[in-house]
Known about the structure:
23% of the residues lie in helices and 24% in strands. The chain has 7 helices and 17 strands. α1 (17-26) crosses α7 (350-368). The structure holds flavin-adenine dinucleotide. The site of flavin-adenine dinucleotide has 21 residues, from α1, α3, β4 and α7. Flavin-adenine dinucleotide binds next to α1, α3, β4 and α7.
Amino acid sequence: MDSAPGRRRRRVRHVFGEHLLWGVDQDVGVLGFEGEVQIEPGERVLEFADRLATTVAPGDAQRMQERQFDRPVLGEQGGGVLAARDGGEEFEQPADIVLLCAYAINNVHLMLLSGVGEPYDPVAQKGVIGKNYCYQTGAGATLFFEGRHFNPFMSAGGSNATIDDFNINGDFDRGKHGFVGGYNVAGGFNTALPIGYRPVPRGTPQWGKAWKAATAKWYQTAMNIGASGSVMANRYNYYDLDPTYRNAFGQPLMRMTFDYKENEHKIGQHAAQVINDIAKSMNPTRLNEATVRTRWTVVPYQSTHNTGGTIMGANPRDSALNKYLQSWDCHNLFVVGANVFPHNASYNPTGPVGALAYWTADAVKNRYFKDPGPLVPA
Ligand SMILES: Cc1cc2nc3c(=O)[nH]c(=O)nc-3n(C[C@H](O)[C@H](O)[C@H](O)COP(=O)(O)OP(=O)(O)OC[C@H]3O[C@@H](n4cnc5c(N)ncnc54)[C@H](O)[C@@H]3O)c2cc1C
């Protein structure tokens, strides 16, 4: 983007390495070539560039969360973002590269709002922005062992024991069970929250004296065996812009269309059977058997492992981004998050999200800055 008259320029000392990763990891980032950013006099958006150049100051994260970014303005000659400060005042931030790292769902939303890439049409099955939305499926059983004391209040997710026999194990013939993908099984405790964790045997009244007595009796004695299953992309699950509801900036909200289909049902049936077999072999006093999740529901909390929507792939016909998470449409736009996963592979997403952030940071630093343009030929 050309320098507008009167625009001040500020030199940023370090835009690479860990500071770039702060940007990749945390927020919508705006970088300038050769360490320069262009700003209007007095604009607080300087903090944005400062975040990439210096250690994040206390309070920055809060300010970044309050800030709502609008359309990236991108093109062959550079670009930037339109943004709004707290209070709604809009401004434009020129930049040579935009790193979009606003969480999986928000990244897709911003792409749809920006008009970068063709939105997915589930009827025509064309377009790439919004497609392949995936989540996780699962099943869980609660086991009660009268007289045992598990002290769940001092437990942690990492203390679970996990088996992968029905997930990445290539010897498991899932074909005869009629599904692709798989699931991992974990036994033990996750974070046993003081109010949220109140395991009681099925059939216990859901409130009142009998419920209180049951929570006191069984709290120490319960453990869980749960499965987290993959969800494959299909034409029916996708994101688009809501035709009715808008946010405070007048923009259409994101709309998510999702439900479990036959593949997930079959995974869930298999997982529930395996879990119940394991649970019964442990001979609990009482058992809340695992059941299949047939319909998706927004309650209760299951996981926040949303994936897909702007997937990476081998060509612009089927994907929004190339393998460096670079937009096929705007070569100076990189999009980092679980939105790049073509499907949900059952495990929690953040490890690969972090690994891909490093991968992209390396590509920006060592490839793109040296030779700006598409890193993969279309
Ligand atoms: C309760 C809970 C438990 C979880 N447990 C696990 C787990 O056990 N294992 C696991 O792998 N994952 C877990 N996750 C998921 C994990 O938190 C995410 O996968 C991970 O944080 C994604 O990283 P990210 O950098 O893509 O997005 P985020 O960490 O969400 O960062 C995005 C940032 O962008 C900012 N932002 C958003 N929109 C805008 C905008 N328009 N303008 C400017 N800034 C914006 C946000 O404020 C945020 O700071 C859990 C999530 C939750 C909520």
